[in-house]
Amino acid sequence: MNKFDAVELRSKIIKAIAHPVRLMIIEELNKGDKLFSQLFNLFDFDKSTISKHLLILKNAGIVSSKKKGLDMIYKLETKCIIKFLNCIDRVISHSIKKTVKCMMCK
Amino acid sequence: MNKFDAVELRSKIIKAIAHPVRLMIIEELNKGDKLFSQLFNLFDFDKSTISKHLLILKNAGIVSSKKKGLDMIYKLETKCIIKFLNCIDRVISHSIKKTVKCMMCK
DNA sequence: TAAATTATTGGTAAAATTACCAACAAACCA
DNA sequence: TGGTTTGTTGGTAATTTTACCAATAATTTA
Predict the structure, then answer these.
(1) Model's pTM, two decimal places?
(2) What is the pLDDT of residues A29-67, one digit of tens each?
(3) Do B102 and A88 touch (CB under 8 A)?
(4) In this structure, how many other beta carbons lie within 10 angstroms of the beta carbon of residue B3?
(5) How many contacts, defined by CB atoms under 8 Å, are there between A and B?
(6) For residues A11 and B20, is the Cβ–Cβ distance under 8 A?
(7) What contacts B23, CB < 8 A, 6 or more positions away?
(8) Interface of B with A in 69-98 (CB under 8 A)
(9) Interacting residues of B3 by C-beta distance below 8 A, sequence separation 6+
(10) d(CA A38, CA A42)
(11) d(CA B30, CA B53)
């Protein structure tokens, strides 16, 4: 894999994480697997909108899904995303006030 | 700060990281501070394009800049971004072949 | 001070993302 | 089988992002 493909791939995954709705879905799934309907009920958006957000997360390899009866169960595949988000919060702290150090930056 | 503001802020910062050009700039700055002209020379884009990418990174608090003579020196403010990217690469590995575990997921 | 060099800003067109509605597909139940 | 529930897919309009060109600002040098 060449350097440009690598950076494009990274970009795709990070973009998948970057949307507010998808961030909230990731946090919710971090608590445990959820039905589509449970995720849908967190928001005021159309079903199709949430479904498409989930598809983006799936295509990025961040979540997986399996059918169970009428329901669809969603699962967070990559728990490290959460630590990733903690780091982002440190960036925020750093920006707001340059006193809080990123815990991941030893 | 309420939950929605928090998620919007996270989103903004992650979006700032998500672009291929900005990812490459971050990696380059991780090696050390760089002049604008050095960063500009990495790409085939217009000066103004690179300048605007840098502005987005600055607004997100990821890089800072200071003038030195005619040049502008750019600096990576938040080194933890790099570990963040390592995690992303684990997501990629996970997706490609579910054998490699994310090192950050203990 | 005038000219040259470096980087940023303003404006705009093209491309990508997002959210809705409608139609559809899959699984269940009467 | 026909109807109901659940979630996805297709199409489209609105918004956001991106990259270029031109003009501007800041600094140095002649």
Answers:
(1) 0.89
(2) 999 999 999 999 999 999 999 999 999 999 999 999 999
(3) no
(4) 9
(5) 114
(6) yes
(7) A7, A10, A11, A14, B17, B85
(8) 77-81, 83-85, 87-92, 94-95
(9) none
(10) 7
(11) 16
